[in-house]
């Protein structure tokens, strides 16, 4: 694999030597293969398909009780509430799992194949390697896994409502979805620098995203410093509801802060790793 990688001469800061070439490499891994169109098709179908069932299939609405409809305010409000819940609560968990699975091999695979060692034997610094992984995968995931579904979901909500859905709460929820996904992207990259096999990377990442609510239920302060409550936060925010700080700004801020911390730890670990 290393033989197929070509590094071009470019001018850049010495502290990030090799970043531009490595970013091109990461971009080609997405946009130069069928990976981009598979994800561009898969995620809108997965996330928006389930949402469409909630919004447009009459049988789903008929399952609602009179009390649920009354609490929501109307049948349309109830259906939209259910659609938002599916898109954000299920969708954010699905996107987090997707990020973990797609990136579990990003660093570990190159360590095992010798590609990482070969790259770092060139005029490339370790921090450029890690940052290129993060930036390249972030751009692709935001474009393919989030961008399409978010646009389609907003369009479907507007169609079901019969007018433009309120943009501000929806965009706020989409921002929360983005931060949540980037948390697991950064976590997976960091774990890839720590471990040499895929098992721990998958195990820790999936345990967090699937078991976090259980742990948070046992010790509620964990919700304040993790992304575990953010799917519910996004769903409620999209509905235009005002949330208390412990359910909104506090977990969102701490989750956002974890992202650069994970990347910094990944850089430190990678710079001190003998490949």
Could you walk me through the main structural features you see in this protein, from its secondary elements to its overall organization?
- The chain has 275 residues and is an all-alpha fold.
- The protein has one domain (15-271).
- Helix content is 75%, strand content 0%.
- It contains twelve helices and no strands.
- The chain has helices at 19-31, 35-56, 58-62, 66-72, 75-103, 108-113, 115-120, 126-161, 167-194, 198-218, 230-238, 249-271.
- The longest helix has 36 residues, at 126-161.
- The mean pLDDT is 91.
Set out the fold topology.
Elements: H1 19-31, H2 35-56, H3 58-62, H4 66-72, H5 75-103, H6 108-113, H7 115-120, H8 126-161, H9 167-194, H10 198-218, H11 230-238, H12 249-271
Protein name: ABC transporter permease
GO molecular function: ABC-type transporter activity
Keywords: Membrane, Transmembrane, Transmembrane helix
Give a short synopsis of this structure.
The protein has 275 residues and is mainly alpha-helical. The chain has helices at 19-31, 35-56, 58-62, 66-72, 75-103, 108-113, 115-120, 126-161, 167-194, 198-218, 230-238, 249-271. It has twelve helices and no strands.
List its salient traits.
mainly alpha; elongated; 12 helices; 275 residues; 75% helix
Q: Alpha-carbon distance between the termini?
A: 16 Å
- Any idea what the shape is? elongated
SS field, number of helical segments:
12
- The average pLDDT score comes to 91
Q: What fraction strand?
A: under 5%
Radius of gyration: 21 Å
- Helix fraction, binned, reads over 70%
- State the secondary-structure class: mainly alpha
Largest sheet: none
Low-confidence stretches: none
